[in-house]
Known about the structure:
With 185 residues, this protein is α+β, with helices and mostly antiparallel strands. 23% of the residues lie in helices and 56% in strands.
Amino acid sequence: MAQAAASESFSENGVSIELTKLGSNSRSIHSKVAINASLDTVWKIMTDYEKFADVIPSLTVCKVVERVGNRARVYQIANQNLPLGMKFKSKVTLDCFEKDVETTASGIKRDLEYKMVEGDFQIFEGKWSIEQVTQGQKLETTLAYIVDVVKPKAWVPINLVEGKLCKEMQANLSSIRDAAEKMNH
């Protein structure tokens, strides 16, 4: 009989994160932040791949390798400091699929789906989802970052990386929020 996935949630600096253990070395992470900016502003930051490393603290390289239609193949290098003085440098090539704007019951939504095609994980895929709703006269925009599966290559135990991943997501979403709100003013 399959056991239920263990899940933990926390919130810090306006960013909520839910971590679900899918197996011994695999995780799903959902995070969300409210942003005082339009969907278009957030989308511009998310899809300006060449400048994305200026926004995301741990990202040292982010460049477009190829662009075909709504797909951008992006090469990224990220550096993380792990517990016990260990360092983890990850390199990934992602296919980023820029979805069209969808109309929802409460506003509009746009997704940026990604899937690793090569890199330092066995599996790394998910999506960024931007949703803008109108509450009276006020626009409310939320950015969700969903990592469906993170499964490092065998030499890195996920439990060493998971806490760092959550802290990093919190920092990344905060940085995107700050950049979008700065562009808006």
